[in-house]
Amino acid sequence: MTITIQVGELEKKIASLFTAVGSSNEEANQVASNLVLANLSGHDSHGVGMAPRYVDAVLEKNLTPNARVQTRIDTGTLLGLDGQYGFGQNVGVQAMEMAFERVHKHGSCIMSLSNAHHLGRIGHYAEMAVENHWISIHFVSVNSRPIVAPYGGGDGRFGTNPCCIGIPVGVGSSAREPFILDFATSRVAQGKMRVAHNEGKSVEPGTLIDENGRPTNNPGVVVVPQSNGKMGALMPFGQYKGFGLAVACELLGGALSGGGTWHRQADSRRAVLNSMLTIVIDPKRLGTEVSFASETTEFIDWLKSSPDAPDTAGVKLAGEPERQKRAERRKNGIPIDAATWQEIIDSGKKVGVAI
Question: Which CATH number, 1.20.1630, 3.30.160, 2.40.50, 3.30.60, labels domain 196-235?
């Protein structure tokens, strides 16, 4: 069973959860809007289904409402920030805006952000950059129960460690939609397994291993403890290639930022902490704005002119599916499976909110 709810109504209901645990109205609305935007984009794994976990993280005192970013170091083009365990959708935007101030002045900025609670869909931050016609690159670590196995390993040792790249295409009248590449370094996002488990679905072979390190198509092995009390794990995408990129995200996003890496046994905390290394570049200040705009449009047009392969919808570039899904769901509403909706209702009961 699935319910369908319109954007505005869903944002209000989710925001009420966060005001109930101490967020200001501004923060509650910002976090709720970000989660709903993930659903709108077709990324239900990073959408409102995360709200109950956020509420639990506040109640266990591992997520701090209304936190502000703290500056550790600022040399102009280098910016080291600490998220103070605040809502990622709040401190992440603060961090990007601070980086943007440096890009306006210097043409580029390398920014690290440690100790942010779940940053949500990283593509959101790339979209912020391309709105300014800037490039952004993001390496993100996940400090939470390890749910991804190393290539050749038999249990979870790190998180889904996303990587994201945003690139504007063209400029002015020749501008095209931006290229927004945003992906987990696991074969699929952990949240997609939560959604599949709630919907009673199986997943593709090669996606998971069970609590004994054996292949399985049951998403529940990474959602709920199994018979022996252990959990299964996701596999990295692309075998050793995805594994290598996941390690890079852990070392750059986690170690370099000061947020740390995961190298301990799993615990039961609900909080999901992210640390992120972000690079923002202004092509204009690099002196290649005109040629960059021309080359990006010509290359994208070249790709799109490829004839459709049999039984496919043709060439689609990163960012296109999300934009198409947003238009569809703004019109028709956002579908939410019954199990996820019940989790949201139950979360409201914990904090005295009737959803």
Answer: 3.30.60
Angle, to 10 degrees, between the axis of helix 88-106 and the axis of helix 123-130?
30
Instruction: Give the least confident one: 13-22, 32-41, 100-109, 216-225.
Output: 216-225
One-letter amino acid at 279 equals: I
Handedness of CA 150, 265, 223, 15 (dihedral sign): negative
Kindly report, residue by residue over 53-109, the tens digit of the pLDDT: 999 999 999 999 999 999 999 999 999 999 999 999 999 999 999 999 999 999 999
Sort residue 217 into left (φ over 0), alpha (ψ -120 to 50) or beta: alpha
- Rounded to a whole number of angstroms, the distance between the first and last alpha carbons of the chain is 18
Q: Can you tell me whether residue 140 is helix, strand or coil?
A: strand
Please state which of the four CATH numbers 3.40.640.10, 3.30.830.10, 3.30.1370.60, 3.40.50.720 is assigned to the domain occupying 67-186+237-305: 3.30.1370.60
Q: Which residues pair with 113 in a beta bridge?
A: 81, 276
Q: Bridge partners of 86?
A: 64
Domain 1-59+333-355 belongs in CATH node 1.10.1530.10: yes
| Secondary structure (DSSP) of 128-139 | HHHTTT-EEEEE
CATH 3.30.60 domain span(s) along the chain? 196-235
Do residues 234 and 207 make contact, with C-beta atoms less than 8 angstroms apart?
yes
Does residue 347 sit in helix, strand or coil? Answer: helix
Chain segment 321-335, per-residue pLDDT in tens: 999 999 999 999 999
Bridge partners, 189 (sequence order): none
